[in-house]
Structure formats: structure tokens, C-alpha cells
Amino acid sequence: MERVRTGTAHGSAHGGGAHSIAYDCDVLVIGGGIVGLSTAYAITRAAPGTRVTVLEKEPGPARHQTGRNSGVIHSGVYYRPGSLKARYAVRGAAEMVKFCAEYGIAHAVTGKLIVATDRAELPRLHALVQRGRENGIPVRELGAAQIPEYEPEVRGLAAIHVGTTGVCDYVAVARQLARASGAEIRYGAEVRHIDRRPDHGVAVRTRSGNVIRARVMVNCAGLHCDGIARMTGDDPGMRIVPFRGEYYELARPELVRGLVYPVPDPAFPFLGVHLTRGIDGGVHVGPNAVPALAREGYGWGVVHPRELGGTLTWPGSWRIARRHWRYGAGELRRSLSKGAFTAAVRRLLPGVTEGDLVAAPAGVRAQAVLADGTLVDDFLIREGACAVHVLNAPSPAATAALPIGREVGRRALGMLGAAAA
């Protein structure tokens, strides 16, 4: 279990002894995405009667990473055996399907193809077969002639079929988690100040001036999680570097039956431009991965100078750029040139044309980066005094939301028990 370095946050929100404080809740969760709401759900399921409040700065849940992804229920085939991503994705995929079925949320287990289109990708494809089997995932190897059995319009040298992959409506999942948790959800509640006293819990002031006092705080703020950690008085030891993922919608969705992915580059946590038939029958194409100029920079025209300055002054950002400039240049080219993006898609789907791609809303990935330029590859959960920080939870966090929520909830409840002792 990792611990962050703890500092002292000064303020006057607390006063008197621990027993004289009128707490508004036992656990305060910052962030109303799927991980924050799953944490609230897990806490109230594990310890009924625990008072949980969730603060979300947007007017509704799941407005950022949760609601702006491909909607894929990942199988866990990509992730290092034994890692949190591997364990939680495999477990979480099965639980997500069960949760959706229980509450009548739209979902489908479609399976997916991972397709090698170049001979240099064949060893990596074989490595994925081995990794999938180590993670307990059924994988079928396909030759070029077998690919059309699953996807008649897709071409490649070889592929693997992963049967446990699916799609669902993650926004509906988040809403159901909010309802089923019984937590108090406060929307439009942007956190502006946190006063944390290890012996007295935390007091959080929102933009409106309201102050919420809690024994334990959970930071599930996604794109802003490092800032919330620092506001608490903890040094997160990382920085969120936002990467925008740009999508298109396929004007001829009949070209794709299910999910089609390229073979990913193991040096990066990104999966490459892929094709995803969603629960609505439409086909998403993308995303690429380009640096965003703001934490919520969903287009090149969205620039937040202070946030951009934070990214540019973080040593890890420059080390990433020096180490991976060729990869970044390719992603940038596909962002600026629809023709280049189309060419990337045509490697998998030769029949697609530039006119088949219709611009769709983008997403931003909250990627944790260490000072040495390392892209944090696993989920990262750290603790400070009466605070739990979720510091890296990009894809497949939506898939893994239920087990992540239980782990974060377990830690928060452990702190709550210690505070009450």
C-alpha cells in the first residue's frame, strides 16, 4: 500500500476537539464519474448506514472520461498479468455485464478482433495470445482467411478473437450507481479549498461557499485529481498530462459488425485507432492521442493557459516528448489531416473512404506521468491522512469501476474505522 507525503493544510474550518465537530458526512467523494460513484456505491453496500456525499462540479454525472469513451467493456487481454488493470478488468468485465443485466442497462457481449496488418506486428499479436491466456481470457487465433468469418470487410495477416469483450452505456451505469448508492450527490459543486487536519478529518469549500465536513475524503477527480491531492496537502508525485482522443462516426456502419482493433504498441498505454459498434448501432472510429491544451481540452481551440503551463513545466512532459516524438508526430498528423486518419483506418478496413468518416465528440484521457517521463501504466491509488487519492484511472477504469470502487471503499472504510477507534 502506497502512501503520499503528507503536508499541513492551514485554515479555520475546524475547531475544538474531534467530538465537537458536526460532520456533514462520514465519507466525502470528490468526482461524479463512474469511479467516484462506484466508490460511493461500494461503501454503502459494505457498510450500510455510512453517510456518503459526492461532489461533482458538472450539472450531472459522467460528463468527462466516463461519458466520452468508446463504451467498450474491455476483456483485460492487454494488461500485464498480476497488475491492477489485469485483475480488475477481467473481474470488472464480468461484473459490468451482470450489473447492466440486473438493472436493464443497454449492453452486449460482442467479442472483438485484434488484427495484425504488418509482419512486424505478428510477434506482438502472439504475445497478446500468451498474455490473454495468463489472464484467464479465452482467445482464438485466426489466420488471414478466417478474419472474414467475423468481419467480412476487414483485412489482415492474422488476428485473434477475444470473446468476452462487449459494449455498454456507461453514462446509464453511472446514473444507476448514483441512485443505488443512496449517497447524497451534489452537482454543480466545484471544490475550491480543502482544509485537512489529520485528527479532525477534512472540510471542503465549494465555489458557492458551502463547506462540507467529513471524517474521510476520497479523491476521484479524474482530470483534476493531482490538483485535488495538492489542495489536500499531499504531494501526489505525478502530474496529469491530458491527451485528447479524437473520434469519427462511420457513415456506413454496415461495414463493421462488432469491434476491430489494431495490435497496440506495448510502449504506450493507448490502444490505437479502432472501430467500435456501439449499443446504438453506430460505429465509432478512433481515438488517436494528441496532447490537449487544457484538462478539458476537447478541441484545438480550447486552451487554458494555467493548465497548459502546468503541463509544460512538469519535467516528465518534456521527457515524454524527447523519448516518443516520432509516435507523437504521427498522432499529430492524424489529428490535423483527415486523409492521414483515414489511411490509418484503411489498414484495417480497406473499403473505408474519407467521406465515410463524420466528425464526432472527442474525449480527454487523464494520463498520470511521473517526473522522469514514465507514463503510469497501472491504476494508481495512494493514501494520505484521512484521504484516499485515485491518481491514475484511465481506460479500462470504466470496465473495472466496480472492483476499483470496492478497493477504494475498503481503504476509506479502514480509515473511518481507525478514526472512530
Structural notes for this entry:
By secondary structure, the protein is an alpha+beta fold. It has 11 helices and 22 strands. The strands form 4 sheets. Strands 6, 7, 8, 15, 16, 17, 18, 19 and 20 form a 9-stranded mixed beta sheet that branches. The radius of gyration is 22 Å and the shape is globular. It starts with a strand and ends with a helix.
Secondary structure layout plus pairing:
Blueprint: E1 5-6, E2 25-30, H1 34-46, E3 52-56, E4 72-73, H2 84-103, E5 107-108, E6 112-116, H3 122-134, E7 139-143, H4 147-150, E8 158-162, E9 166-168, H5 170-181, E10 184-187, E11 191-197, E12 201-206, E13 211-219, H6 225-232, E14 234-235, E15 239-250, E16 259-262, E17 274-277, E18 283-286, E19 290-291, H7 305-312, H8 315-323, H9 325-336, H10 338-346, E20 357-369, E21 380-384, E22 387-392, H11 401-420
Parallel strand pairs: 2-3, 2-13, 3-10, 6-16, 13-22
Antiparallel strand pairs: 1-14, 4-9, 5-9, 6-8, 7-8, 11-12, 12-13, 15-18, 15-19, 15-20, 16-17, 17-18, 21-22
